[in-house]
Amino acid sequence: MKITGNTVAEVAYKIKLDDQHGEMIEFADERSPRSMMFGYQKMIPGFETHMDGLEPGQSFEFSLSPEEAFGNYNENLLINVPKTAFFINGSLKEDLLFLGNEIAMMDSHGNPVNGKILEITEENVRMDFNHGLAGKNLFVTGQVINVREITEADLAPQGGCGSGCGCSSKESKAEDSCCGGGGGHHEHGGGGCGCSTEGSHHDHHHDHEYTEDCPACGNPAELRGKGHGDCQCG
Predict the structure, then answer these.
(1) Where do the DSSP E strands lie in 134-177?
(2) Hey, where are the domains in the chain?
(3) Global pTM value
């Protein structure tokens, strides 16, 4: 069976910045391939275009422009968020507010958006809501492992499934993966992130540099956190 609309493909792949010599940013190997849902705008556009018609066993290699991936960098997504947005039960969540921290928030339409803290002032927190790969060229290689028809179970809401499962950004944080979450574009009503104030829930994370290989699956240190691995260490 070929990859077309209404199919799900299990794919092993590597994604690098710019070209074959660029930094590895994400991968899934043959032992833990990633499922991609085609025909439902559940992933960045370039994957749909370049992988259409491929069959199990076929290898692929292609480059993606920013327009085919996570879009161009948008200065309008640099936003001053009032500090009141970070109050929970009347107290400022100061543990969230440090430069470089990435915080999962909600826009004015209720969609999840990730913002990176660039500056903290007395009244506002300046945040960048561009996807981390906005404006970047990507280089993709890999192999199609399996292709099957889509099922009703695939189309059902997948709350909490995590990145790469084929959910849209409205359903999960799939945008964190190159293979899920659409094009990384978000709308912000009223010039702000639209997040609520009292009682808001914010997740936060920052990059962690590993110095040792994964003790469970053997992923080398430079690849930990960028893929699945047998132990799901990515």
Answers:
(1) 138-149
(2) 7-70+134-151, 75-128
(3) 0.66
